C-alpha cells in the first residue's frame, strides 16, 4: 500500500516528490557524491524520476 501511495505522489505531485527525494538523498550515507548527483538529476524527469528512485535506487519518500 505504501509503495502504491508513493507512486501516486510521484506521478501527480512531482515537485513535492522531487524535494522529498533530494532530502532522502542528502541523508543517505551509502551513496557516493557522484551517485547522489546522478539520482538528483534523474529525479527531475517528470513523473518517472522519483518512481525510478523508489523502485531501483532503494529510496523512500518518507
From TrEMBL:
The organism's place on the tree of life at top rank: Bacteria
Record-annotated membrane-spanning stretches: 6-25, 37-56
Record keywords, A-Z: Membrane, Transmembrane, Transmembrane helix
Annotated protein name in UniProt: Cardiolipin synthase N-terminal domain-containing protein
Organism encoding this protein: Vulcanimicrobium alpinum
Amino acid at each position: 500500500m505504501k509503495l502504491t501511495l508513493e507512486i501516486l505522489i510521484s506521478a501527480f505531485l512531482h515537485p513535492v516528490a522531487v524535494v522529498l527525494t533530494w532530502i532522502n538523498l542528502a541523508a543517505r550515507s551509502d551513496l557516493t557524491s557522484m551517485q547522489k548527483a546522478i539520482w538528483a538529476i534523474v529525479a527531475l524527469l517528470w513523473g518517472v524520476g522519483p518512481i525510478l528512485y523508489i523502485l531501483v535506487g532503494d529510496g523512500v519518500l518518507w
